[in-house]
Design goal:
Shape: globular
Structural class: alpha/beta
Strand order of the largest sheet: 2-1-3-6-4
Number of helices: 7
Largest sheet: 5 strands, mixed
Strand content: 15-25%
Order of helices and strands: HHHEHEHEEEEEHEEHEEE
Distance between the termini: 64 Å
């Protein structure tokens, strides 16, 4: 072997050794994270089915991830790795399954479910959005994934979320909105009532009446979806959109973290990357 070839081989061997060392550190850190989760379980217990779900904390983790990310590795790949870690350790604290809305595109919903909840969480496809809510209510432990876009036959499925002990919308996916990302189908995560003390950035309301997107926007709210005379609306919890919109029978049915928009303009639902999470 020539000196040049020998030098290149040594350089490659050094780089591979560095990669192996990094992989070992990553693995050891995951093991260490697991031991911390074990201590957390012993310290607080997870007898309450929803005790392990912390959507507000997860949102803050993702915001820090976006803030420190650099280099050529796609941001959505890092997001997926973190989501796998978060979901797996959450499942360790309090095992749960995921009921997936079968009225939407099956392949898209499965991609979304696996991207956000990984492979440790069992999935079961149920007929439609109403069946998802019914499963979450019946188990008091499982989560549900409901597509934002629904066939007309689904109706105002969110009305089943009204009531103190009813399931709640706890997230809107995707959390990171960016061009070219995989698993981009908009969907709600439905959960049992949570014990997370972190206030949601935006409240989600069910309302009756013809919802006008422009009127709601002027009032600081956003129409998420409508079915006949029923609407699902996101808004900061402290604003009064009822007077301006003329809607009635307004009931809070959940709360969501404001997502992050990478490479585009922000909105009520998505703050531009690098901006504060509060709506402008």
């Amino acid at each position: 072997m020539s000196k040049t070839g020998e030098s290149e081989a040594l350089a490659l061997a050094d780089l591979r050794a560095r990669i192996d060392a990094i992989d070992e550190r990553l693995h050891r850190l995951l093991i260490e994270r697991g031991s911390v989760i074990d201590a957390l379980i012993r310290a607080k217990g997870t007898n309450a089915p929803a005790a392990a779900f912390r959507p507000g904390r997860e949102a803050e983790m993702m915001r820090r991830l976006v803030a420190r990310h650099a280099g050529e590795l796609p941001l959505f790949a890092v997001e997926h790795i973190w989501r796998e870690i978060i979901s797996t350790f959450t499942h360790m604290q309090a095992p749960f399954a995921l009921a997936v809305d079968g009225a939407a595109d099956a392949a898209e919903m499965r991609d979304l479910a696996r991207f956000y909840f990984g492979f440790s969480v069992p999935l079961e496809t149920v007929p439609d959005a109403a069946a998802v809510v019914a499963r979450v209510a019946a188990t008091g432990r499982d989560l549900g994934l409901v597509a934002l876009g629904q066939p007309s036959r689904s109706g105002a499925w969110w009305r089943a979320l009204v009531g103190e002990k009813a399931p709640r919308i706890m997230a809107l996916l995707p959390f990171l909105r960016m061009p070219g990302r995989p698993a981009a189908t908009p969907a709600f995560v439905v959960s049992p009532p949570l014990s997370d003390p972190t206030p949601a950035d935006l409240a989600v309301f069910a309302a009756t009446g013809k919802a006008d997107s422009a009127v709601l926007a002027k009032a600081g709210a956003e129409l998420l979806v409508a079915a006949g005379d029923d609407a699902l609306i996101a808004a900061p919890a402290d604003i009064d959109f009822a007077t301006a919109s003329g809607l009635t029978e307004i009931a809070r049915v959940g709360g969501i973290a404001r997502g992050i928009c990478v490479g585009g303009p922000g909105s009520l639902l998505y703050a531009p990357a690098g901006a504060r999470k509060e709506p402008a």
